[in-house]
Queue: 4 jobs
Job 1
Amino acid sequence: MSWSCRQPNSPMNRWTRHFGPFALVGLVCLVMFMQFFQRSLLGRTLLAAPEEERAVELSEPPGLGPVTLAAKLMVREKYLQLGTEDAPKHDGGEEVQKELDELSREAITRPERLRLGILTAEMVGAQASLDTFRGLAAEATPEGEFARDAKALLNFYEAHALADAALSGEAKPEAAPVRPVLDGQVYDGLRARHSWFATLAATYGKGGYDPQRDWLVRGSHSLIGFFLLRGVLYLGFFVLGVIFLIMTIKKAREEGFVPEFYTTSIPGEVYLETVIVFFLSFAMMLGVSVVLLGQSDAWAVMVSEVLQWSLVLSFLWPMMRGVTFGELALDLGLESGQGVGAEIMIGIAGFMVTRPIESVVGIAAAALEEALFGVAKDPGGVAMFRQPLTESWWPFIFGALGAVVWAPFIEECIFRGALHRWLPAKLGPVLRVLISSALFGAAHPYGLAGMLSVAAGGVVFGALREWRGSLIAPMTAHFLNNATIVGSQLALLKIIE
């Protein structure tokens, strides 16, 4: 069998021509299955966490785990409602209790449950947290560091519970002692092990006038500014997108759509093989990710990231089949088009156009999904698999790099580059865009609404590829689309942190 791709009727090309489309469809289905299988595993729960995990007493400083982020957000939201000068009210409420119940599924280890107890006292009242601290004090390793923390907080909140009862009229005023203060040495130990939560405990019952309490709730008003700014930006993007979309449709009707799709004489089969190699490698990466589920060490994150970034090696396949780098770059659209600056500006306009299209499609698809499958029920219990480095910024940083660097480059080269290059010219631009967009949406591990929304964005990226020839415009639009989402998430995390 000839290895070179330059002979259209070589055995390798004929095999790809006849069986390649079936292999691609099969691999896309396999990738979809594996992604949904992985999601189902991540969504599986246990009635109770394993005892060995519940018995962990090692207290690492809280970082970006779900309990920590939710606690900081809940406390700041409460102060926005009360005003930072007021002493906090510990009346809880049905919604607050629901949030605390959901967090109890995330708080597995003893330090996590201790921190949840501190949050419960803050949101509902000291009395509501006593059972948590009594249980932790009873099960902790005797004379251990954690046992001292649990007993100190139990005594601290018992005294506060008496004071709260007196202030609310539930007990005689003379029965209420002066509000206690954590011993300096005890507080220093708690601060070293529990950071923000230690200060939250030490300032229980105080208002925003307290310097330590002010440090806790700092950033509350930044949340309001953030949500207002994000709303204005998203609305602006939506309006500009509608304007650009109308202008584009009007121009296309007046002047017609003229594709700028230049290719070499290389047979298209080699680019179908490239897409197949990508999906095959993607499926193998997903297989490794499934095997790594449950691993909580940093190396598991690094292995997953290295495997994801190694998918760029898929583009070596055409060169192994005899395609030169220059030919590969032209066929994939890795060229300057009408000028880098002009292509970037077109890409920015394309990003704006994706806003209203993705929004409308996403809302409609979500309504359809709910009508067909109903609202997903909470499975209850605790997650079977915990994600590694949950208290670290590293997963967020890796995820951000993948979204704003890896995805715009690799996905555009595959779906708008190699796939468009292989799809026969006789299909025309519309069918090429629709086919590549459908596969683009299918490759993302979301529900029906998410996949359709991604496919809608793929329609815009594909149209840019057909119109401009160069991948610079769709890559720019893709980058801005992902960067807007990721940047918003990271900004919110930073404010909450």
Job 2
Amino acid sequence: MAEANRAYETGDLEALQRIWNEYQDTQDDIEGEDIGAALVRIIRQISLAKDRLSTIERELEILRGSEIALLQKQAQASAQDGIDLLEQLAESVQEQIDLAKKEFNALSSQEEASNG
């Protein structure tokens, strides 16, 4: 149920459809304890497992292509060259913050001068 709620909240229609299909498959339980019924249950379980594996593989591909994954790859490659990419990025962001503060202070000073 928690997985269905997450899928609903994120608008993941594919996940909702998969969850619904799995639910439907479990609702069509095969009655009986004979070999045929057991075989049908096992085949359904295998099918559900294959579907889930396919979904996980697609999700992994999406994650591997995400910006954070690419950043991680770049950081690892830079680390092999003795470069701390994340430290460089932090320094760059700090420089941008410092520049923005200077610009803000300059604009504030101009406004005070024109109002004063």
Job 3
Amino acid sequence: MTSNIHAFSIDLIVFDLDGTLVDTKDDIVAAFEWTLDQYEISPPEKAQIEGLVGTGVQDYLRELFRPTYPDPL
């Protein structure tokens, strides 16, 4: 009997952690609130930040900085 299993090595495993495997919205909100605080910008409501989950970090930053910096990126 022969085996059809081939040996291979795994160099990297990537997980999408914005709600796919674990709920990280609170962590994402905290990170963006901290970032805005560094620029002395009052953060929007949590729901607005959560609504941006999945759009990508550039879209997050553009939307959250827009009231203070019209064209941040």
Job 4
Amino acid sequence: MKTHTLALYEKQKKQFIAIITLSAGLLFLLSTVVNLAMWRISGQPNFLWNSIGLGACAVLVGLSYGMERAERVNTAALLLTLSWGGYFLVHSLFWANVTSPLLVGLWILPTLLLVSRYPLPKIAILLLTLAVSIILIWLNQTPFFPRLATTDISLLRFVVPSYIAIFGLFVLPISLFGFHQRKLFVQLLFPILVMVATPIVILAINTHYNTMMSETQATQRLLDQILKSKNDQIQSWLLQQKNTLENLLQEPQSYARLLNLLTGSEKGTQEWEENFIGSIILLQRASETSDFEEIYLFNKKGIVLASSETGLIGENFEYQEFFWQGEIQPSIIPPRYYAPANQVSLFISLPIYDSLNNLVGVLSGRATIRPLLAIFYQPPPAGYQSLRFYWLGADSNVILSMQGKPNLRLETEASRNLLVNQAEGTGIYKNAAGTVVIGAYLWN
């Protein structure tokens, strides 16, 4: 009687290994077919190499089945564990950023063997699975060639359902075997449920996370491109305005006219009168062909000798930043409220030197920011109606219009980083209203 029971027990052990081996073989073959199909559809060579690796695992699991038929059940269990580990190692070679789901899948079959009531080489199975886990993690950290991206939704919409389906076919024979042996089925019920639910949940979470990250990164790239495009337009506009002033100093006749007014004859003489009227005409023409509201010619004391706006002649601007910065070097004063014009204005200033390279005056222009506002408030791209732009002055006030003194300050993580570090970047942070947003910022 005892011999009969022992024989039955060994028979059940063989059946247990056989059914898992056949189920794993089915999983490997179907995975190979899916990868070949994806290779034909997408043309991605990684799918072809993946299918070859999976085919090799299928051959190995075939050897395991041969060992089971030859009554070498323990050897079959080890080969089965090895082929199962190889299956997940092959996937880690060709797919990026899937370490977590692969590790979960890797431990499913060894766990099934370890919790079984049959005397298998469980220590060897455990050590083998641990070794494969370490290799899998290492492969993810040190890829040997470009891998398939889990952010490619066009691929995942085919791959994920296919793998869920074939994994279900792996579980099904094991479940049916358990139904015929109720005691064994009770032991296998929880592992089976875990085996079915875990990969589905992991794949769903992984797909959702990668989709979200892909969309976030795409949005950040778009915002960064938009800001850089606007910055390029602004730099181009600034260069045009600066060129307007430089042309007055580089064109020999206009330079001579301005220099003579600064250093030539005394006020009231006919020569002075000619230089005075000629300089005003030069400045008015330059103003009309640019976005300058006013252009000024200062002497070294900051007094306006000529201007496109004749009412300013004789005024002293010695303590205005745009004047004393212009004495030092070519300067652009960022947009800020300018009380005399009751406008947000931008100043560009150039030092004027004589033939001996002595500073004799400053040429400055006050520009309207209307063209810059037009650049900033262009309609957003389709699908990004919630997009908002904020143009900050150096004082962190938001520049909203040409008129009036700005009184809205923007206090966010991005604005602080921008103004303190003069940095650029993208990120996810809270806006002024406390809402989490995807943003980009750029120092001009």
